[in-house]
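Quick one - first record:
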Amino acid sequence: MNSFTAKIYKIGVNPYVLLPSAVLKSIFEQANKNAGPIPVKGKIDAHVFIQTLVKYSGKWRLYLNGPMRKASGKDVGDTVRIELSYDPIKRIIPVHNKLELALKKNKKANAVFIELPPSRQKEIIRYISFLKTEASVDRNVAKAMNFLLGKERFIGRDKP
């Protein structure tokens, strides 16, 4: 586990910390890669989290979501103590059963979904899987299907 302290910055609406080069090097060695998203686990001021390191605008960033900041009682401008290591556990989000059923029923939409880049597929799956009400799921599955059929935007994206 790598330990360091860092100031919380903000880019757009996203709070993040930058990692020291020695910590990045260690994570890259543990992950056996230094490109693409890298799953990590750790602690922020002793509160456990899982997250993903991403490179954006030339810098590797550990984004600190709301629950992470709330648990630590820290926000933008504060300094936090972080323990971090590569997380080898695969992060699989199951396809919501209503989305799966809709894709099975509509071969054209399913064909478009299969041709999407894996990151876009995951974005759709994640969005629908984390909705809180059945009404929201139903509404957004319909929107996702219309998106796949080229009829409307979905999750801020133009038609595929």
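second record:
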Amino acid sequence: MEKFKLFTRKFSEAWTACMLVMVQGDLSVLSMNHAIVASKTGLFTGLAIVLTSYFKKIDNKYMIAWLTGLFTTLSDYLAHPSMIKGESIITGIGAGLLALTLSFILEKKN
């Protein structure tokens, strides 16, 4: 159950960052195609983080955020060709920052 929770969290962070960057913040142009492309990025990122967690214990929120950003960058680059130069890097940074922000929020909540 813990791995599934980790997967869904990383999927949603990468998916959200990818969606926002693809439409350049203009939510009025979101389409099903955007959601499908973002789902590929989220799927690759979630799987990469879960696989990494089997080989290395990752309990540092900064390391998890860094890995989320790294895997999101790679996943976004592989998932679709970009019209914006450096889009995958921007997406990775966004996912990493989102992961770090959520870790602080969840830490405070608990």
